[in-house]
Design brief:
With 165 residues, the protein is of the alpha+beta class. The protein is 20% helix and 38% strand.
Length: 165
């Protein structure tokens, strides 16, 4: 082989390597929104309706997230009164404490390790039924259902009477 052909081979190798490197870099940049690690100390905290919400995932944190994931902390005697999510289903998982969980007209006491699935438009409520804080995880999906909002049903019959019985 001549010096010229060795040079061409080296240039082709370097050129291919640079394209591969560029391709991998672009792929990583484009896929960054497909996963996201969040450490507890980085969680955005939101105080709403007397409850602390520690958001793990929702669209403004992870734009590609199709699910919202939040840890909620309720103080003794607090609750999230009867409401519904028109376009989102919800799963609650109890981490700490005791929850008085209502789904339509059915009441259950949920404790650590218990969970409930609630379909869109199903009226539900969660209250802290324990002597200490209640902590639970909530998974809501699809995330774009958030735009339809949360509809308060606590003043409507029969929901307005359930806890007074």
């Amino acid at each position: 082989m001549s010096l010229y052909s060795d040079l061409v081979i080296d240039c082709n190798f370097n050129f291919d390597f640079d394209l591969l490197s560029l391709s991998l870099s672009l792929s990583l940049l484009l896929n960054m929104s497909h996963w996201k690690f969040i450490h507890e100390k980085e969680l955005p905290k939101e105080r709403a309706f007397g409850r602390d919400h520690y958001w793990h995932f929702k669209p403004d944190i992870s734009p590609d997230a199709e699910t919202c994931f939040v840890k909620v902390v309720m103080q003794k005697g607090d609750g999230h009164d009867f409401h519904r999510h028109p376009e989102m289903n919800e799963i609650l998982y109890i981490l700490k404490g005791k929850a008085e969980q209502w789904v339509e007209d059915e009441k259950r006491i949920l404790e650590v390790g218990d969970s409930v699935y609630i379909a869109p438009n199903v009226i539900h409520a969660t209250f802290n039924a324990g002597e200490d804080e209640l902590e639970f995880l909530a998974v809501l999906s699809p995330a774009n259902g958030w735009e339809a909002g949360t509809i308060d049903e606590s003043k409507r019959l029969p929901y307005s009477t359930y806890r007074s019985q």
